[in-house]
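Private note to self, pasted from the team thread so I don't lose it. C-alpha cells:
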C-alpha cells in the first residue's frame, strides 16, 4: 500500500550534506566569498527597494533575512537569495494598486504556494516554461527597470511615478524642465564606471587592460601596478562607484537627492516584528499578484540555481528543496516589512567566483550585511539616488538578452513570436498578462507543431479495400487529417474495408479514438469494416480500454513492411 506522504518531497537542506567532510580551507574560502558578496549586495538591495517604491531598509533586511533562510534551508550549495531586479516592476505595481500592506500579504501567500510547489515535487515543472518566454519577459523587465530609473538618473522632480509604461513616459516628458545636470553627471559617471571598471582592472581570473601596461614599465613599477590591479579587481564595482561618488557629492555639496533627503536615512538597529493586517476580503483580491510573485520567484530561483550548477561544478541543486526554502523566506520577510525574495544571478555568480563551496558563504553574506547596517547605517544617508539609479541601469543592461533580438532570424517563427509577444506584453501591460498570454500561445504553437508532424500515408487501394499508414501522434489537434479517409469511405458506392497500419503511431488520445470509432461505424454502414494492425504501447492500451479492438473486423492485412507497405505513397494530409 502506498504511503499517503510518499508523493511529498523529503525536507533535506543542502547545508547538512555540505558540512560532511567540511575542512578549514573550505571555511576560509566561504568566509571570504560571503564577505565579498555581502558587500556587493548592499547597494543592490537598497536600489531594488527604492526602485520598487519601498524604503531602502526593506531591501537590506530582505537580503539579510532571506539570504540566511535560503542558505540554511535551500537545495543549492552556492545560491544567494534576496530582492531581485525582476521584481521591481511587479512590486512597484502592487504597491501602487493595492498598497504596502497588501504587498506583504501577497508575498506571504506566494511563499505558501512556493512551499506547496516544492513539497508536491513540482520543481521540475518550471523547466517546461519555454526559454523564448523567459527571454521575452526578462528583456521587458530590463526595459521597464531602465525607464523607471530615468527620474532619478536625470534628477527630475516627479512626486510619484505611475506604474504603467505609458504613464511613466508621460510623467518623464511632463517634468523634463526639472532636469538636474549634477544628478545626470553622477548617474552617468556611475554607469560608465561600472561598464569600464572590470575591463580596466579585470576580474578574478580575467585580466584587464591595466595588465597590458605592465610590460611597458620598469620591473618595480610593473610589480606595483600588478599588485594594485590585483587588489582593485577584487573590489566590487558598485561599491567603488557608491563610495567614490557619494564622497564626491558630499565634498562638493552637489544639490542632488540622497537617501537621507528622501527617506531620512536607514535605521541603525533591528527591524520591529509586526503582523501585516490580514483579511480574507483583501486576500481574495490578491490572487493575480500572489500567483505572479510565486511563479516569477520559482522561475528566477531555479534558473539561477541551474546557472550556479554550471558555473560552480558542484553537485546539482535539489529544485524542490530550493522552492521550499524560497517559500519559507517569502513567508517570513513580510513580518519585518520586507519584499519578495528569489535567487539572484549576479550575487550568486559573484559568490561562486569568490570561491564559495557551501551554503556557509550565504550565511556569512547575511552576517556581513547585518554588521554593515548595525555599524555604518548613518553613512548611507549621503548616497545620491542618481548613483543608485546608475547601478540599476547597469543591472538592467546586464539583465537583458539584447543579442537575441539580432538573432531572431536564426530562431524558428514560433520562438520568435513567443519572445517578441512576451516582450511587448511585459512592457505595455505587465508581467502577469505576459506570462498568461505567453504560456497559452506556447501551448497553441506546440499543438500546431505536433499536429504538423502527424501524417496519413496511403499504402494501397483496390475496389474493396483502402490501406493507410498513420505516423506520429493522433490527438485532438491532428484528427482533421483523417477527414479525407472518412470522405473517401462515405462516398464509396459499395462495401469497403479500411486497413490501418498503426505500427508508427506513437500516441492516441480520446479525440483520436473517437475518429477511429467514426471510421469503424462509417465502414460498417457501407457493408465493410475497419482493420488495424501493428498497434502497440499507448495506442493499443487506449483502444483496448475503450473496447474498440473487440469491435473491429478480423485483420487479413499484410504485416507492416510487406508488399502493401512497399507501395507507400506520399502523405494525403
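Design output:
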Amino acid at each position: 500500500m502506498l504511503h499517503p506522504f510518499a508523493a511529498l518531497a523529503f525536507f533535506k537542506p543542502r547545508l547538512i550534506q555540505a558540512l560532511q567532510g567540511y575542512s578549514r580551507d573550505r571555511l576560509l574560502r566561504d568566509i571570504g566569498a560571503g564577505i565579498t558578496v555581502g558587500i556587493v549586495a548592499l547597494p543592490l538591495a537598497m536600489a531594488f527597494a527604492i526602485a520598487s517604491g519601498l524604503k531602502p531598509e526593506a531591501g537590506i533586511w530582505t537580503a539579510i533575512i532571506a539570504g540566511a533562510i535560503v542558505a540554511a534551508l535551500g537545495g543549492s550549495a552556492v545560491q544567494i537569495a534576496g530582492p531581485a531586479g525582476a521584481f521591481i516592476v511587479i512590486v512597484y505595481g502592487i504597491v501602487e494598486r493595492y498598497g504596502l500592506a497588501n504587498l506583504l500579504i501577497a508575498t506571504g501567500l506566494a511563499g505558501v504556494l512556493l512551499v506547496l510547489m516544492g513539497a508536491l515535487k513540482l520543481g521540475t515543472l518550471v523547466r517546461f516554461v519555454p526559454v523564448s518566454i523567459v527571454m521575452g519577459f526578462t528583456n521587458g523587465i530590463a526595459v521597464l527597470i531602465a525607464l523607471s530609473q530615468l527620474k532619478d538618473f536625470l534628477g527630475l522632480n516627479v512626486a510619484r511615478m505611475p506604474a504603467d509604461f505609458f504613464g511613466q513616459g508621460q510623467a518623464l516628458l511632463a517634468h523634463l524642465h526639472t532636469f538636474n545636470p549634477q544628478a545626470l553627471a553622477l548617474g552617468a559617471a556611475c554607469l560608465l564606471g561600472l561598464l569600464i571598471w572590470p575591463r580596466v582592472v579585470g576580474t578574478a581570473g580575467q585580466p584587464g587592460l591595466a595588465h597590458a601596461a605592465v610590460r611597458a614599465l620598469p620591473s618595480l613599477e610593473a610589480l606595483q601596478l600588478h599588485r594594485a590591479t590585483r587588489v582593485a579587481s577584487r573590489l566590487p564595482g558598485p561599491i567603488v562607484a557608491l563610495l567614490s561618488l557619494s564622497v564626491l557629492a558630499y565634498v562638493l555639496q552637489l544639490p542632488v537627492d540622497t537617501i537621507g533627503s528622501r527617506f531620512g536615512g536607514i535605521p541603525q538597529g533591528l527591524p520591529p516584528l509586526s503582523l501585516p493586517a490580514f483579511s480574507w476580503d483583501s486576500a481574495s483580491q490578491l490572487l493575480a499578484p500572489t500567483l505572479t510573485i510565486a511563479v516569477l520567484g520559482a522561475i528566477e530561483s531555479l534558473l539561477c540555481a541551474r546557472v550556479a550548477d554550471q558555473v560552480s561544478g558542484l553537485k546539482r541543486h535539489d529544485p524542490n528543496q530550493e522552492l521550499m526554502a524560497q517559500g519559507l523566506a517569502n513567508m517570513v520577510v513580510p513580518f519585518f516589512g520586507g519584499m519578495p525574495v528569489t535567487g539572484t544571478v549576479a550575487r550568486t555568480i559573484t559568490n561562486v567566483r569568490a570561491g564559495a563551496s557551501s551554503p556557509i558563504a550565504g550565511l556569512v553574506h547575511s552576517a556581513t550585511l547585518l554588521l554593515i547596517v548595525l555599524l555604518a547605517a548613518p553613512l548611507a544617508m549621503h548616497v545620491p539616488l542618481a548613483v543608485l539609479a546608475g547601478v540599476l541601469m547597469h543591472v538592467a543592461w546586464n539583465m537583458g538578452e539584447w543579442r537575441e533580438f539580432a538573432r531572431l532570424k536564426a530562431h524558428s517563427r514560433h520562438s520568435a513570436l513567443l519572445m517578441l509577444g512576451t516582450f511587448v506584453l511585459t512592457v505595455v501591460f505587465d508581467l502577469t498578462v505576459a506570462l498568461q498570454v505567453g504560456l497559452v500561445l506556447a501551448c497553441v504553437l506546440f499543438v500546431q507543431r505536433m499536429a504538423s508532424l502527424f501524417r496519413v500515408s496511403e499504402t494501397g487501394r483496390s475496389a474493396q479495400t483502402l490501406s493507410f499508414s498513420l505516423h506520429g501522434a493522433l490527438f485532438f489537434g491532428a484528427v482533421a487529417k483523417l477527414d479525407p479517409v472518412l470522405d473517401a469511405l462515405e462516398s464509396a458506392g459499395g462495401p469497403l474495408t479500411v486497413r490501418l497500419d498503426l505500427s508508427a503511431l506513437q500516441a492516441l488520445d480520446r479525440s483520436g479514438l473517437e475518429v477511429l470509432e467514426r471510421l469503424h461505424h462509417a465502414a460498417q454502414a457501407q457493408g465493410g469494416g475497419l482493420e488495424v494492425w501493428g498497434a502497440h504501447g499507448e495506442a493499443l492500451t487506449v483502444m483496448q480500454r475503450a473496447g474498440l479492438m473487440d469491435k473491429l473486423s478480423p485483420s487479413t492485412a499484410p504485416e507492416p513492411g510487406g508488399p502493401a507497405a512497399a507501395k507507400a505513397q506520399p502523405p494525403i494530409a
